[in-house]
Design brief:
The complex is a heterodimer of chains A (535) and B (317). Chain A has 13 helices and 20 strands. Chain A is of the alpha+beta class and 535 residues long. Chain A folds into 3 domains: 213 residues, Multidrug efflux transporter AcrB transmembrane fold (Up-down Bundle); 95 residues, 2-Layer Sandwich (Gyrase A, domain 2), CATH 3.30.1360; 151 residues, Gyrase A, domain 2 (2-Layer Sandwich), CATH 3.30.1360.200. In chain A, the strands form 6 sheets. In chain A, strands 11-13-12-17-16 form a 5-stranded mixed beta barrel. A 4-stranded antiparallel β-sheet of chain A has the order 9-10-2-19. Chain A has a 4-stranded antiparallel β-sheet with strand order 3-4-8-7. In chain A, strand 12 and strand 13 form a beta hairpin. In chain A, helix 11 runs antiparallel to helix 12, helix 11 runs parallel beside helix 13 and helix 12 runs antiparallel to helix 13. Chain B has 317 residues and is α+β, with helices and mostly antiparallel strands. Chain B folds into 2 domains: 190 residues, Up-down Bundle (Multidrug efflux transporter AcrB transmembrane fold); 79 residues, Alpha-Beta Plaits (2-Layer Sandwich), CATH 3.30.70.3400. Chain B contains 10 helices and 6 strands. In chain B, the strands form 2 sheets. Chain B has a 4-stranded antiparallel β-sheet with strand order 3-4-2-5. A two-stranded parallel sheet of chain B has the order 1-6. In chain B, helix 5 runs antiparallel to helix 6, helix 6 runs antiparallel to helix 7 and helix 6 runs antiparallel to helix 10. The radius of gyration of chain B is 25 Å and the shape is elongated. Chains A and B meet through strand 19, helix 10, helix 11, helix 12 and helix 13 of A and helix 4, strand 5, helix 5, helix 7 and helix 8 of B.
Chain lengths: 535, 317
Amino acid sequence: MLHFDRWKIVLIYILCVAGLVYTAPNFVPKSKLQDVPSWLPHQQINLGLDLRGGSYMLLGLETDALVRERLQDLVNEVRGALREVSVPYTGLGIKDGGVVVTITNVADAEKAKEAIDALSTIVAGNQFTTLPERDLLVTADGQQISVVLSEAAKRARVQSAVQQSIEIVRRRIDELGTTEPVIQQQGIDRILVQVPGLDDPGQLKALLGKTAKMNFRLVSNAMSGQQALASRTVPAGTELLYTADQPKTPVLVERRIMVGGDRLVDAQPGFDQRTGQPVVNFRFDTAGGRQFGEATRDNVGRPFAIVLDNEVISAPVIREPIMGGQGQISGNFTVQEANNLSILLRSGALPVAITVLEERTVGPGLGADSIRAGEIAAIIGSLAVVAFMIASYGFFGILANVALILNIAMVFAVLSVLQATLTLPGIAGIVLTIGMAVDANVLIYERIREEVAAGKGPIPAIESGYNRALSSILDANITTLISAAILFQMGSGPVRGFAVTLGIGIVTSVFTAFTVNRYMVSVWLRRRRPKALVL
Amino acid sequence: MRHLKLIPDDTKIPFSRWRYVAVGLSLVVMVAAVVLLVTRGLNFGIDFKGGILIEIATDGPADIGSIRSDLGGLGLGEVQIQEFGQADDVLIRVASPEGDDADRASQAVVEKIKGALGDDVEYRRVEVVGPQVSGELVEDGILAVLVSVALMLLYIWFRFEWQFSLGAVVALVHDVLATIALFCLLQIEFNLQSIAALLTIVGYSMNDTVIVFDRVRENLRKYKKMDLAELIDLSVNQTLSRTVMTSGTTLLALLALFVFGGEVIRGFTFAMIFGIFIGTYSSIFIAGPVLLAVGVSRDATTGGLGGVSKEKATGEA
């Protein structure tokens, strides 16, 4: 136990020095970091949002809407397919999460099923099988044919919607000019957003809360919105929408879209030259510009509606054909609203609405206070433990303290190298580690005391002290490591930070408190060759 | 120089003589824990209940009354307002709005509160947890505690024998229940950090139990004829100094956190401090007696399964 091979000694030195060197950048102010020679480590510990301030959000996609949308399309597709093969039917509609249709003549059922079957395409299989699957499952029961989306189809839709949404969310967040936002998929249908330094996420939420599906449609000239509201029916091919600003007034618009928002290539906030009102200037791509030009040319004198998320932002009258693909939206905006709308139009529409399921925002003041409190607690905790160890074990206590300080350095080094996130509970984990890391030394020293009391000489006592304490040390640390691992697995954010530091601290403490400490004791024994142990 | 010794050498405290008292006491605590859990319940934080939490700092001491009247007129349902650590620090808690679209409604509540309080206060923390997420967090939390206890059981089974495993896990369940009882009794907010505290207590309590069991196993090999009660007492006494030392250093660190670590983690450290005491107690007074009650199988030649009992002649070492 007390003999060390040369390579082991070298390894111990290398690890200890590495621990100190990789911790060092954390003590250099961020502004001075660039002056550090490039061959030295630069990585500082990544502070969690609870320490540096910022906003954490868990966004959920409204996946039910995705399926519903697909089913609505499917109704039209089925209608088309049945028309194609001239099969009469009744009761085509959505029922119980699928599309159902009743074929008038049972004899046609087979033919109808084949036609509907032909609508299905192949999508990738699930994560367990790579076999491609069909997206539609068609079953016929007598006259009734029902079509449901396969699980694979739903999954594929959700997955692609999540991917698309992440891209759109990223574009919108980038518009806020924040640094290092984290945007990633969480689970099946969620997106995790972390924006450091954002202490008022109001604007971000305003931006994320809009799907931003925009289109330009003609206002119906069959009747006015008020008339449609009173008659409770709308003419075919139109729908009743409301204006975005108060008071909400009904506007009857055509279902047919003149130009879709996906044709926009740019949108910028600006001011109307005559009224000085905030407006949004937009530009279409070539095809969109042509569509818009033709539509306005054919409908001079009629009002058209600019529809965003099924709300009418404004409904100006077409005074002249708008060629050149440029235009202006003016709807009683504030400067902020005009700015947000142009961001939304530039970044594109989300495939489906998203909601904020969870939000945690920490202001910079609380973060700074937490860092200070954590530092003070860590320093005082360490000093108390150091003093206690010296009082209890004298010189051996000092050796244990050297191991303890190395351990703290190594925890910081590992955190810096792995770029793990340090949170407030993470600091608590480090302080707890300080208290528990000396446990290994306590176990060893108490064992040595026993061996000395049993009449053994210094070297055999120390030898068997380390030997016999080892299994207890390993058992004790593995049990704590198990808790830390579970906490890491289930925890999120700050709590996960606790698991990280606790776990790292346990692993490094076995090295410092057992191996490094043992090496120090062996060097001391060889130099001093004590006749008796004072412990 | 004489060193500090919290525990004198060669203690011979007959712990197992008090086991009936200790186990009785613990049973009372366990029953109380269940009763408290049912009658009083845990004071769930927004992590598990859903809702809105806003921490604000005011310029100078906060006027809770005026904040209450500012927010009272908003029709937010149940609003809790309390001082948080300092006179200029206020915590506002609002229950999740009812209804299908609680997530969006919660966001609206945050905007309303911010509108009512204005820009003069500093918003230190805003947390909104929707009903969907809080439900999942409850499931995850319960699962985490159960899985960790199960894994501990397996690990001890693997390293020792099933009797040890049983003793250790009874001690663990004891500690978890006692900690939950504390949360119910003092109505400390139970949140994600509390789950972290529970799991750490599980780890610490296990750590302590394992050290004692390790020594029991060693002594079982050494003193083949010694009465089990006596042997467990001997093992606890031999490791007592270590137990107290390590509890001591850990407590020192936790006390530093409790006093200086700030209000945000105070509940967490408080639970941990309690956990150190209960974990140390249980490894001496619960794990040992359980082991004694189920007995251990010593070498095949000296006794069968559970054959060692206190009625047997007290063998000398």
